[in-house]
């Protein structure tokens, strides 16, 4: 069928044929994924109006009533669960509106599902040992999707995503405000990915010629958060951040920030490279930081 929509509330409405790809959650990463897809081949779904670029947008309240969804060959789902509870009602609400089965769903999960591994390397076969409610919600979502896809003969690819950085996500404001970081001696390895490399992973996972499955994604660098912040400061011409002990961090950091520092692992991205076929453009974070600074808006 056909769907009528406007690019913004009260905007002009126009018919849209079925897109090939439905990008659910056209935020920081999803909007870039939409722009990387051929014009007219995709539909973005987001909570609020914004620049649509070359692709149409459908507005939806992920915490309220979802609109009917058009048929699509591939659904990419990037919407995080709510911040409370142990489940993901947003995902359940969305799946309830999928009237025609896609061929594949690509789901953005988190490397937090592995919990604290004491700095050890973890691949996709490692046991899931979440320590936070945030990670437990993701595991529940992965399980719900696996059951839903299995019962309908739909392929499922899960991207387990670490910290995402890029233009506007370098922590420059925290550095300018003089916020401290956990000192290097007590910092575990970190895992991250530049947003453009995450888009490349999503495009590869959406390619029906490539194998579906679970993929850890990341740059494979694993430098600590303290090192990364110092690199950003140096390349941005800012004063290096003050380093504090874990004892002091427990007094001044937010519970959310502490929850990340209490977990340590090195995420193995061999399968991303060898099976999904993605080689990160920014395997060296210094290159990714420079590129991100180059795209930062002045002022």
Task: Walk me through what this model shows.
- This protein has helices spanning 28-36, 89-95, 133-152, 172-176, 195-206, 225-236, 246-252, 255-261, 270-274, 285-295; strands spanning 3-6, 13-16, 21-24, 42-46, 57-59, 74-77, 104-110, 121-122, 155-161, 163-165, 181-182, 192-194, 214-216, 243-244, 266-267.
- Helix 1 packs across helix 5 and helix 6 crosses helix 10.
- It contains ten helices and 15 strands.
- The strands form five sheets. The protein has a seven-stranded parallel beta sheet with strand order 5-4-3-6-7-9-13, with helices on both faces. It has a two-stranded antiparallel sheet with strand order 1-2.
- It has 299 residues and is of the alpha/beta class.
Q: Between the first and last Cα atoms, what is the distance in angstroms?
A: 46 Å
Unreliable sequence segments = 1-16
Tell me, briefly, the overall form.
globular
Element string (H = helix, E = strand): EEEHEEEHEEHEEHEEHEHEHHEHH
Strand content: 15-25%
Oligomer: single chain
List keywords for this structure.
two-stranded antiparallel sheet, 299 residues
Explain the layout of strands and helices:
Layout: E1 3-6, E2 13-16, E3 21-24, H1 28-36, E4 42-46, E5 57-59, E6 74-77, H2 89-95, E7 104-110, E8 121-122, H3 133-152, E9 155-161, E10 163-165, H4 172-176, E11 181-182, E12 192-194, H5 195-206, E13 214-216, H6 225-236, E14 243-244, H7 246-252, H8 255-261, E15 266-267, H9 270-274, H10 285-295
Parallel strand pairs: 3-4, 3-6, 4-5, 6-7, 7-9, 8-15, 9-13, 10-12, 11-14
Antiparallel strand pairs: 1-2
Helix pairs in contact: 1-5, 6-10
